[in-house]
Amino acid sequence: MTKACVDNIKVLIIPKIKDPRGNLAVIEKDIVPFKIKRVYYLFDIPSGSYRGGHAHKELSQFVIALSGSFEVVLKDREKTKRVILNSPTKGLLITPGIWRELENFSSGAVCLVVASDIYKEEDYIRDFKEFVDYNK
């Protein structure tokens, strides 16, 4: 298993088709490096709330701010990286073994998550100390 590292986390550009009637962003083919098995979105997030607070053992995610903005805090065993998402044409590719927290949601923010697998509770690491031990 390759050591999970926040330095390997990337923001990917989502192709946009410009049109005077409104733009269209497309996620298909090789935009995400995994087969999409689950899509969900977060919305109506109360001011001061945060989401996430876990890592995945095998799941990869592609996180997009469809509307508004929010901050993604990423952690490995040694480093922390913060990424602000505020464009529907940029997505954050989060690989397995990275702790993630979503915070500082703007009013009206909508967070879309495209995932490599269906929901499986056994894939989650929800305790940070367990996460650190898991990544030794």
Automatic annotation (TrEMBL):
CDD domains on file: cupin_QdtA-like (cd20292)
Domain Sugar 3,4-ketoisomerase QdtA cupin: from-to ranges: 8-135
InterPro entries noted in UniProt: QdtA_cupin_dom, RmlC-like_jellyroll, RmlC_Cupin_sf
SUPFAM superfamilies for the chain: RmlC-like cupins (SSF51182)
Protein's name in the database: FdtA/QdtA family cupin domain-containing protein
Lineage: Bacteria, Pseudomonadati, Bacteroidota, Flavobacteriia, Flavobacteriales
